[in-house]
């Protein structure tokens, strides 16, 4: 019986500082055979282990067809991530994965795509943006909407500007609190829906704080988007990532295994219900 | 399967001897610190002869009389769960190499073939649920698995339900129907022995059994039926999923939160609760580190904490999580309720909270 709890050694090939507290680690297994076997889908996550401290679930932001890279964009907020922030190229970590259900990219082919993110929720969705841009002919119009609390929370500003100049791509940015020089909208992320166009049957993928996703879901349903076209990436406490430890349960769903990406009808009953 | 036989009481030691000869470590009920616990049996004399229990919400006491019987009690605080899903164990270790590398070492436990004597129907049902959780999903747990494969189960049909028991209402007892290797029905003069597996049948063949008198079988069956009829508590239905989730804002959740201490006793004694935390303990010299897992509880703050947010910050939300999972969303996960009616959470709750009363109040008692 293979041991599903056991990590494997990876090396940091590159470290990119994205903002004062956000960084990207580019990882590869030190065992070339493991690296060659490793496959994932955008929206899935790995358990990343910092020696002597512990494991954390982190979504994968690299391209699934680039077999040399496993990229993780991380905000230093806890014991493990603050430790990870201090490591550089050549350092070793543990890794196991990938886990969970990723974004519905096959289902999305031939359709307009709306990606809606808040806060660092943009990280797991950036993998989808890259995925679509590299396979542009398979997808319709791409709309990228990002909400932040404060304007200086926005990372990858230059990236958003670059995306907005691409054909058939719309970018909308909104900050709850504006500031001088802010080039996006001021208000909740839902103010952006009036400023972009997407066709009927567009697929919505969203990630970020739950109040933001709930507000967006309500507004999109009001505008006639079908419930099954709304996909949400959920975040819960995770220790094992394989549906054993119980921390991530949301009703009958183990978010680690049944999610983290869910079609809205599967979590509708408990979304926004305090305590679940 | 071989026909049941009768094992006269003086020959009970032969059962232990046969199990020992077959290579099993024999565990069974013993009295320690005022409670029935499952520990290694030196001989059949270690069994709790003449011991009876008195259980009420928030109360558990033993007393003795002159009865020759060894299994005249309802379950104590623990039985099978800690033997398979260890309260704390090493999952793996890691070591730092001089080149900055990390090596990882699995720590799959060495499990001795173990026979447990005196397993009750409720605990067999709970074992079935733990098997589903740890072994039958996409990522089987090798730690649980190695212990499970080495287990030999000798069930004893329950004839002495406590006031806290309600296995008849959950459909899990008091008769052990399946999931055992051997089952015993205890009478004053001995035991009706039935095999439930090929392993059990082989062992049964080694016992000095007498022909079973139909009167003995009828007496044994009658005691089990009476044990079901004697139960004082019941859940209102075997499926409360819809009733619970339709009543997430019932005032009873506030009421129970005033009484619940969030102490985690209920989840510790529950034979089906599976939550556990993973934690890391680095060696002081920095050369190695040990990754543990330890039972966790949805009644703790840490259980639902993610950076900056605690999903269940108060007792009302934690009790509601426990009950809606145990009796509700468990149906979505494993096709039945997660409660087997053992009543431990009632007896071992220091506030005497009764799961059957809380579920009945929340669901309004109108669920047929």
From TrEMBL, chain A:
<protein>
    <submittedName>
        <fullName>Ni/Fe hydrogenase subunit gamma</fullName>
    </submittedName>
</protein>
<keyword id="KW-0411">Iron-sulfur</keyword>
<dbReference type="Pfam" id="PF00175">
    <property type="entry name" value="NAD_binding_1"/>
</dbReference>
<feature type="binding site">
    <location>
        <position position="240"/>
    </location>
    <ligand>
        <name>[2Fe-2S] cluster</name>
    </ligand>
</feature>
<feature type="binding site">
    <location>
        <position position="248"/>
    </location>
    <ligand>
        <name>[2Fe-2S] cluster</name>
    </ligand>
</feature>
<feature type="domain" description="FAD-binding FR-type">
    <location>
        <begin position="5"/>
        <end position="105"/>
    </location>
</feature>
<dbReference type="InterPro" id="IPR039261">
    <property type="entry name" value="FNR_nucleotide-bd"/>
</dbReference>
<dbReference type="Pfam" id="PF10418">
    <property type="entry name" value="DHODB_Fe-S_bind"/>
</dbReference>
<dbReference type="InterPro" id="IPR019480">
    <property type="entry name" value="Dihydroorotate_DH_Fe-S-bd"/>
</dbReference>
<dbReference type="InterPro" id="IPR050353">
    <property type="entry name" value="PyrK_electron_transfer"/>
</dbReference>
<feature type="binding site">
    <location>
        <position position="245"/>
    </location>
    <ligand>
        <name>[2Fe-2S] cluster</name>
    </ligand>
</feature>
<dbReference type="GO" id="GO:0050660">
    <property type="term" value="F:flavin adenine dinucleotide binding"/>
</dbReference>
<dbReference type="GO" id="GO:0046872">
    <property type="term" value="F:metal ion binding"/>
</dbReference>
<dbReference type="GO" id="GO:0006221">
    <property type="term" value="P:pyrimidine nucleotide biosynthetic process"/>
</dbReference>
<keyword id="KW-0479">Metal-binding</keyword>
<dbReference type="GO" id="GO:0016491">
    <property type="term" value="F:oxidoreductase activity"/>
</dbReference>
<dbReference type="InterPro" id="IPR017927">
    <property type="entry name" value="FAD-bd_FR_type"/>
</dbReference>
<dbReference type="InterPro" id="IPR012165">
    <property type="entry name" value="Cyt_c3_hydrogenase_gsu"/>
</dbReference>
<dbReference type="GO" id="GO:0051537">
    <property type="term" value="F:2 iron, 2 sulfur cluster binding"/>
</dbReference>
<dbReference type="InterPro" id="IPR001433">
    <property type="entry name" value="OxRdtase_FAD/NAD-bd"/>
</dbReference>
<dbReference type="InterPro" id="IPR017938">
    <property type="entry name" value="Riboflavin_synthase-like_b-brl"/>
</dbReference>
<keyword id="KW-0001">2Fe-2S</keyword>
TrEMBL record, chain B:
<dbReference type="GO" id="GO:0051536">
    <property type="term" value="F:iron-sulfur cluster binding"/>
</dbReference>
<feature type="domain" description="4Fe-4S ferredoxin-type">
    <location>
        <begin position="249"/>
        <end position="282"/>
    </location>
</feature>
<keyword id="KW-0408">Iron</keyword>
<dbReference type="InterPro" id="IPR009051">
    <property type="entry name" value="Helical_ferredxn"/>
</dbReference>
<keyword id="KW-0479">Metal-binding</keyword>
<dbReference type="GO" id="GO:0046872">
    <property type="term" value="F:metal ion binding"/>
</dbReference>
<feature type="domain" description="4Fe-4S ferredoxin-type">
    <location>
        <begin position="330"/>
        <end position="358"/>
    </location>
</feature>
<protein>
    <submittedName>
        <fullName>Sulfite reductase subunit A</fullName>
    </submittedName>
</protein>
<dbReference type="InterPro" id="IPR017900">
    <property type="entry name" value="4Fe4S_Fe_S_CS"/>
</dbReference>
<dbReference type="Pfam" id="PF17179">
    <property type="entry name" value="Fer4_22"/>
</dbReference>
<dbReference type="InterPro" id="IPR017896">
    <property type="entry name" value="4Fe4S_Fe-S-bd"/>
</dbReference>
<keyword id="KW-0411">Iron-sulfur</keyword>
């Amino acid at each position: 019986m293979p041991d599903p709890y056991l990590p494997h050694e990876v090396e940091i090939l590159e470290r990119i500082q994205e903002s004062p507290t956000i960084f990207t680690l580019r990882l590869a297994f030190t065992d070339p055979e493991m690296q060659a076997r490793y496959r994932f889908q955008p929206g899935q996550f790995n358990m990343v282990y910092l020696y002597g401290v512990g494991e954390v679930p982190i979504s994968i932001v690299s391209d699934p067809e680039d077999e040399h890279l496993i990229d993780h964009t991380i905000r230093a907020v806890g014991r493990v991530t603050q430790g990870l922030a201090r490591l550089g190229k050549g350092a070793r970590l543990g890794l196991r994965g990938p886990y969970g259900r990723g974004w519905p990219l096959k289902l999305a082919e031939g359709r307009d795509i709306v990606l809606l993110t808040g806060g660092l929720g943009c990280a797991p969705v950036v993998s989808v943006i890259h995925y679509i841009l590299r396979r542009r002919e398979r997808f319709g119009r791409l709309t990228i909407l990002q909400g932040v609390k404060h304007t200086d929370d926005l990372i990858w500003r230059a990236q958003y500007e670059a995306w907005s100049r691409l054909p058939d791509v719309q970018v909308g940015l909104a900050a709850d609190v504006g500031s001088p020089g802010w080039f996006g909208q001021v208000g909740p992320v839902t103010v952006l829906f009036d400023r972009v166009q997407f066709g009927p049957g567009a697929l919505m993928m969203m990630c970020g704080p739950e109040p933001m996703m709930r507000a967006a879901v309500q507004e999109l349903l009001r505008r006639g988007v079908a419930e099954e076209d709304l996909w949400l990436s959920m975040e819960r406490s995770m220790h094992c990532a394989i549906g054993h430890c119980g921390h991530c349960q949301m009703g009958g769903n183990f978010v680690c295994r049944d999610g983290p990406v869910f079609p809205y009808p599967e979590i509708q009953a408990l979304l926004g219900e305090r305590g679940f | 399967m071989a026909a049941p036989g009768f094992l006269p009481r003086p020959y009970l030691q032969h059962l232990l001897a046969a199990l020992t000869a077959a290579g099993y470590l024999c565990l069974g009920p013993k009295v320690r610190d005022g409670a029935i616990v499952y520990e290694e049996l030196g001989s059949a004399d270690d069994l709790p002869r003449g011991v009876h229990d008195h259980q009420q919400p928030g109360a558990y006491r033993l007393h003795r009389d002159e009865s020759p019987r060894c299994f005249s009690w309802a379950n104590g605080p623990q039985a099978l769960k800690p033997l398979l899903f260890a309260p704390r164990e090493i999952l793996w270790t890691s070591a730092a190499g001089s080149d900055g590398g990390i090596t990882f070492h699995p720590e799959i436990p060495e499990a001795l073939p173990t026979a447990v004597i005196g397993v009750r129907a409720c605990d067999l049902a709970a074992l079935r649920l733990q098997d589903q959780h740890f072994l039958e999903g996409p990522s089987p747990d090798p730690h649980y698995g190695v212990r499970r494969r080495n287990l030999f189960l000798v069930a004893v049909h329950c004839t002495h339900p406590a006031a806290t028991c309600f296995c008849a209402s959950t459909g899990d007892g008091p008769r052990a129907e399946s999931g055992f290797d051997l089952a015993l029905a205890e009478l004053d003069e001995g035991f009706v022995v039935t095999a439930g597996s090929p392993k059990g049948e082989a062992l049964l063949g080694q016992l000095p059994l007498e022909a079973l008198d139909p009167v003995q079988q009828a007496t044994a069956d009658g005691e089990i039926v009476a044990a079901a009829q004697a139960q004082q508590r019941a859940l209102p239905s075997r499926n409360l999923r819809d009733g619970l989730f339709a009543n997430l804002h019932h005032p009873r959740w506030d009421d129970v939160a005033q009484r619940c201490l969030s102490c985690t006793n209920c989840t510790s004694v529950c034979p089906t609760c599976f939550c556990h935390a993973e934690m890391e303990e680095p060696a002081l010299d920095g050369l190695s580190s040990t990754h543990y897992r330890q039972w966790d509880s949805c009644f703790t703050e840490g259980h639902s904490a993610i950076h900056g947010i605690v999903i269940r910050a108060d007792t009302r939300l934690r009790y509601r999580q426990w009950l809606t999972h145990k009796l509700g969303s468990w149906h979505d996960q494993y096709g039945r309720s997660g409660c087997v009616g053992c009543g431990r959470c009632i007896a071992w709750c220091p506030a005497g909270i009764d799961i059957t009363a809380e579920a009945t109040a929340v669901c309004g008692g109108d669920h047929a």
